[in-house]
Amino acid sequence: MTRRRRTLLFVLAFVAVAMSAPFLGGSMVWYLGGAHSLDIHGRATAAGRPPNTVDVGHGWTHYGGDAGGHRYSQASQISVENVERLAPAWQYRTGDMTDRAGLMSQAATEGTPILAEGSLVFCTPFNEVIALDPGTGAERWRFDAEIDLDQYPANQFVCRGVAHWREGESSGACAGRIFMGTNDARLVAIDVATGRRCAGFGDNGEVWIDPGRALMWPGEFQITSPPVTVGDTVVVGSAIADNARVAAPVGSVRAFDARTGAPRWDWDPIPRSPDQPASSSWQGSQPPVEGHANAWAPMSVDEERGLVFVPTSSPSPDFFGGLRPGDNRHANAVVALVAKTGQVRWSFQTVHHDVWDYDLPAQPGLYSVWRDGRVHDVVAQVTKTGLLFVLDRDTGEPFLPVEERPVSQQGAPGEVLSPTQPFPVATPPVVPNRLTPDDAFGLTWFDREHCRARIADSLADGLFTPPSEQGTLLFPFTGGGANWGSAAYDPGRNLLVINMNNLAHHIQLIPAGRVEAAREVYHDQEVAPQTGAPFGVKRELLVSPLGIPCTHPPWGVLAGIDLATGEIVWRRALGDVEGINLGTPTLGGPIVTAGGLVFIASSAIDDTLRAFDIVTGEELWHWRLPAAGQATPMSYVWEGRQYVLIYAGGNPRSQSRLGDALVAFGLN
After folding, report:
1. Among 457, 467, 420, which residue's Cα sits nearest to residue 436?
2. What is the pairing mode between strands 591-593 and 72-73?
3. Does residue 651 carry a pLDDT above 80?
4. I need a surface site. Which of 111, 291, 436, 614 has the fewest CB within 10 A?
């Protein structure tokens, strides 16, 4: 289907639904208000509390703005009052659309630049690192990691960002360094001033990351998210192909000396010996043969506490866990590691015994929340399930209450499911998680009846309905809810801003002996072997014959949540179709600024960067980008001028418009 035809169908779908989306109650913008009031600066505050004044700076020194992932800038030059004057200040093109045109169908542009020692530094999907003048966009230097471009990357060619480290007050070559993980599993160190390799780090500026097991193909094991630094240590996770096999590569988090590249520690989320505390929750083979539980999403750092906060994923394979009975502790969990040793300080699991591919896909947010007359340091974790967990940063205990609730036990033969799953009590799901035949959406009667029949023929007992041979609906789908775009937090308002998707997957288990035959029948769909398990799996989006989602719009949602209470303050559809606010699937994340604004692009359809009023969720400004902005923007101040910048390159998996441009905006 062409992009234009898809757009026209979305328009028709919007006319058919006639602004009657059930989840948003008949309006595409809801300001829910609640116990909030506005202070004299227009900030939404919980009644009777002063605004928080946490200092996270005017620059953008880390992938998430700061080490804790606030995605917040204290710069207020661009504000609610003047944002309509925002216009492009400069644009830079990487050249990938011409130099690597044949590979762009395998590349996802998800990078967010950082401001490091006077340069904007970012990485391309092909692991080139580029430094630009922040005021003009002029190129200062360019480094090519020369990755293997002949590999087949399971997670596409991706580089979300880089990390900066400086050795105290030292000067000279490589006193300031840029660290980047690569698609062919290297950790590279380069001089922030020149872009040259730091020869004293590892082998000529790089160390190879051992996947723990021989790879089935080049590209099964990658590094896609930025490393983090804490003290003189650099820490890196990994991205691993899903559903290829039970005995998959090991999902260890690895730490190295930031000066020499010497290994410091290695933490495997899966316990490999019975004397490890978590081994009692892995009741299959000993030691476990499973891999994964890796940290593919960005990590966070609390320098003062000396902790690294790791979001882990599901064990291998995603959709059958009968060979690994138990809760599988440390998988699908927020884990606080001691930065010096890699030891576990605490762990909180958001999904027990995952058989849904409900990884923790987003950076844990290290925020300070004002409540009961004092500041509380928390970790806020958004999830693919559409649920929000807020934890005490020192203990991992819930800051906002969590309860265990019974869930469906209709597992496949041999499956051993957890009888309960954790659910936050204070914050309802940001997007719905239950789908019935009466909820089916369609452009026409025939379309709607097709969707109704697919839902009726599938197991659909709400969130955590297990995969089955009959076919199961996963709602939200395995892309979320939330994904790697994470959330943004305004410390002066206790307000967390997050975008989520509202789509469903149809998952069907296939007996292992029939997988190859199924691949021939469903050659245009994803059929994965899950080698070593009794079942392979077929996964497809739940859509009508016209390609329209069977779930009601909005398919993309932006929401503001008060972290002191868990209350959803406002929620709106995100993404337009031909100027109509329908809400479209999104990939990428938001940022917030002290000017009272939320900036986000993310839509797979409309290629637009938007600014919203953080108090009400009202859209105030938008600009059409040269390609889809499916990356998270950033903001910085340079020579007295505030800029908002986004890397617009699109993502072929979402069929969005591809490109290779960085666009910086300032007040004209």
Report:
1. 457
2. parallel
3. yes
4. 436
How far is it, in rounded angstroms, from Cα 282 to Cα 271?
Answer: 8
Residue 51 has pLDDT above 80, yes or no: no
Angle made by CA atoms 1, 590, 475, in degrees to the nearest 5: 55
Q: Both tokens of residue 15?
A: 């006319």
- Cβ 229 vs Cβ 178: under 8 Å: no
Q: Do 451 and 442 contact (CB within 8 A), yes or no? A: yes
- For residue 12, what are its two tokens? 């028709």
Q: What is the dihedral of CA 262, 266, 272, 275, to 10 degrees?
A: 100
Q: What is the mean pLDDT of residues 137-162?
A: 97
pLDDT > 80? residue 225:
yes
Q: How many residues does the chain have?
A: 668
Give me the pLDDT at residue 21, please: 39
Residue range 600-626, pLDDT digits in tens: 999 988 999 999 999 999 999 999 999
Cα distance between residue 251 and residue 254, in whole Å: 9
Residue 439 contacts residue 455 (beta carbons within 8 Å): yes
Q: CA torsion sign, 155 to 157 to 160 to 162?
A: positive
Q: Catalytic one among 354, 357, 359, 439?
A: 357
Alpha carbon distance 366, 376 (integer Å)? 11
DSSP string of 333-348?
EEEEEETTT--EEEEE
Q: What is the predicted pLDDT for the residue at 654? A: 86
354 is catalytic: no
Rounded Cα gap, residues 569 and 427, in angstroms: 11
Exposed / middle / buried, residue 443 (Cβ in 10 Å: 0-12, 13-18, 19+)? buried
Cα(315)–Cα(292) distance, rounded to whole angstroms? 5
Segment 644-652 shows an average pLDDT of: 96
| φ, ψ at 210 (rounded to 5°) | -80, 120
What residues are paired with 599 via a beta bridge? 591, 611
Cα 353 to Cα 368: distance, rounded to the nearest angstrom: 31
pTM higher than 0.90, yes or no? yes
User: Which residue blocks in 480-565 are alpha helix, DSSP H?
Assistant: 515-521
**Tens digit of each residue's pLDDT (9 = 90 or more) over 84-133:** 999 999 999 999 999 999 999 999 999 999 999 999 999 999 999 999 99
Per-residue pLDDT tens over the stretch 556-593: 999 999 999 999 999 999 998 777 888 999 999 999 99
Q: How far apart are the first and last CA of the chain?
A: 39
Q: Alpha-carbon distance 453 to 508, whole Å?
A: 16
